[in-house]
Each structure stands twice: as structure tokens, then as C-alpha cells.
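Late entry, written up from scratch paper. The run itself happened at the end of the previous shift, but nothing got recorded in the book at the time, so transcribing now.
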Amino acid sequence: MIRRKYIRTRQLKPGMKIDHTVVDRLGRNLVVRGTVLDKYIIDALLGLGVMSVYIQDGEEEEKLPSVSVRAKKMIEKLRTDDRSKVTLSASVRKRVAEGIQFIYSHAEAGELADAADSIACDLLDSIESNNAIAIDIGALKTSDEYTFKHSVDVATIAMIVSKKHGLSKAEIREIGVAGLLHDVGKTRVPLSILNKPGRLDDDEFAIMRQHSVFGYDLIKEKEFSPAVCLGVLQHHEKINGAGYPLGMTADKICPYAKILSVADIYDALVTERPYKAAFSQRDAVEMIMAMTAELDMKAMQSFLESMILYPVDTVVELSNGESARVVKNNPHYILRPTVVGLTSGKVYDLGEDLSCASIIIR
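Output as recorded:
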């Protein structure tokens, strides 16, 4: 049973789990319910003047089925570490958080290009430090304010996808800049529209759809390459012409925008907002996979091959009723890793073994 405890923010300790969503005065999520607190989040809450919160107290650990001797042997034999994922050190997270807040607070400033480039370089250094080729956006924790976190998430996802795509180091850095700035035009959208908790009406949506144009206008005269500017302008375009603001088709959409579009849609789907619940990573990936008429196939494929949905050692429930542990991921079948049944010790190669075709992870 989960009990709720009211506690002063200064008494919080890393590892505690918050039991309510903390919002700012405009109704924007700062920390969502269920978040496991770390020092960075606790310091941020104190800095924002949040003096007390509810935490979960006395939560019982989930009881997992016992692991048979056969299963232990098969897990030990087959376990293969996941590909390297991008991680940010505490110092990099702090610089990135401060930098992205500066960008969105000083969108008209002349230092915008230098600030964006500095953050992109930090992200690129983090990617290269351990040769990261996969994404775990839940571990980034760059900010608890949606616009800031979303911008860094999109930039990071786009950079990893670009690496998979075969872009040069300079191009990966540039697409990082475009990702950081892709929503900067929202600084010109009225707050009453930007933070509306319900569905926008037609007039409000028409204004919101102009944010990519506003962003392009903000940066086109500054020291950004044409590719970065077009990436910001076109990140909501679709290859079938159904996007906005100009309804361009595939041949007129720049490569950066095609990658940013996938990253933007995915991160928006998996993020909780005041007006919608977050989709699971699995559901979000399946929705992305269904958008073949709208998203560039090469960008989509590079994105899918960069994702890890079920990290090695994750315990999952199979559709045949058995609990299993993930022992190996296959980048070509991200929804179907190799798992070992905890009781039977049976190996299920969900991606390659046709006898497992009818079995899915619930």
C-alpha cells in the first residue's frame, strides 16, 4: 500500500518519489507525479520557491516471480549489454539547463547563436565521450519545465539519429542547434494560448501553427546557417504535404527538418502535459511506425534503430502469461527483444524466431 507524506522541500533526499504533480502559476508541469527525485530536481524546486511537497511513503516493492535455476543459466549465457546510450554528467546538465533557459528568455538577443552552439557542443561531447548510439531520454533530466526539456530532448534525439543517419560531426552539431531552437518561435505566442489546458479553438490553433514561422523570423538574420533556419521553419512539414506552415512535400523539405519532425513527434507523445497523459514509449513508437505517409522513411528508420524500449535486465510480461527478463536487444526489431522466461528458462527470440511470432510484450 502506498501512503502519502507531507514534507518540507529542504527535507527531501535523492531517491524519494513525489506523489503529486508540481505545477507553476501558469499550470505548466514542473515535476510529474511518480518522479524519483535527485539533487538536481530538489535544488530546482527550492529555487522555484516550492517549500513543501507530498512524497510516497511505505510503497511495497513489486513482487517478481522467482527465477528458476535453468532461467538463471540461460540469462547468464545470453545476456548482451545494450548499445551505449547518451548520458549527461551533472555539470553538463547544469550548463545545458542554464543555457536553454537563457535562449528562451532572451530569444531576441544577439548572443542567441553562441548560446545555442555552446549547448549543442556540450551535447555532442557527451555523445562522443562514450560513443553513444542509442537514446534514453528519461535519463537526461535537463529541466523540469516542458519547453526547455522538450527542446533539449529533441536536440539530443535528432543528434543521435543524425549519427545513425551518417551525417558529419559538423552536421550533427548543427542539427542539435536546430533542435534546441525548433520551438523558439513560441516565445512570440501569447501565454493564454501556449499554456491553455484544453483543446485550442481554430483561431488559437492557427496562431500556434505560426510558431515555426516566428522562430524562423527570429533567427534568420542571426549567425545561423540556412540549414538550421530551414530546420526550424519546416519541422512540422510532412512529406505528403499535410504539414504546416507551408504544406511542403518531401522534395522541398530540408534533411534537418525530416529528422527533427520524427524527434519532435516522439518526444511530444511520451511527455505528460496538463491537457494530456503521456503515451508509453512502446505506443509512441508504434504511432511513429504508422506515419509512413507523413514522415521520411530513412529518418524514421534511423530513429527506430537508435531507440532502446526494453533495456537489458528489464522484466516484462509476455502475452502467453509468462514473466521474462530481457537479455538482448535487436536494433532492427526494437519492439521484439530476446527474453528468457523466468520460470521456464525458455528463450524467446521475439525478433527472429518465427515460432514466437504470436507472442508480444504486454
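The chain has a mean pLDDT of 88.
(Scratch paper discarded after transcription.)
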